[in-house]
Amino acid sequence: MKHLISPLDLSMDELDDILTLGQNIMENPERFSHVCDGKKLATLFYEPSTRTRLSFEAAMLNLGGSVLGFSSADSSSAAKGESVADTIRVISSYADICAMRHPKEGAPTVAAMHSRIPVINAGDGGHNHPTQTLTDLITIKTLMGRMDNMTVGMCGDLKFGRTVHSLINALVRYLNVRFILISPTELRIPDYLRQEVLIDGGIDFIETNELEKYMPELDILYMTRVQRERFFNEEDYIRLKDSFILDAAKMRYAKKDMYVLHPLPRVNEISTEVDNDPRAVYFKQAEYGVYVRMALIMTLLGLTE
Description:
The protein is of the alpha/beta class. 37% of the residues lie in helices and 15% in strands.
């Protein structure tokens, strides 16, 4: 039995197989509409979510399966003090596979240690968000036709943004990927990521607070919001939340074939005027997330079409 807690839980071959399967599903979803007949997905969301939870549910329903679960800790026995370990022991009797989001880093790992069904980490604190990473990767692969030889800009909250941390860990496994890390000084990537992943891995990267200067070099611009829920101090949040806003004027500096990604939700870090630019693909990215989660569910359950 295999779980997905970190993007690194997948070998390069496994990752490529999931992305290829996701693209096959994208091209002919009807062919996969009964693969999970009789199977159940439990969605255990201790933290609010729109896209991740609903895309998991849509993925399982599209495969012919069914869904059960809860959408906040307040509506589960966690409100009574039940541990994650006890919850997953019970859920293992009710469902065939589980997707869990939790505000505490490492909670899905604990669940996997006590589970009799595959556990998918749907986000744990500021740590990992591997299925968003799969979504990002299938978007890049589908639109660019490659995963290597590119310059990726990441802009916004790089300190607390778990989607950024997971995507960096995934992209460094491909050849000749360069990073431009654009953020306020206070929101730069964590020290461990800078040292252990980028510096120790010999990866080419630049840390800067200048978006316009580096826009012409980018093949991908990955925008993120400054997350209020990750701050201990409201004053710091208010001071930094508008640090970088992408608008039509800044897009004029970009290549004609650059793509703008965003894990969503958007607050104001991308102006709505950018939405009509063909290089803005964040809503398409959210759609692709359903297909790659369908592929992941099939893979972890050992199912074929």
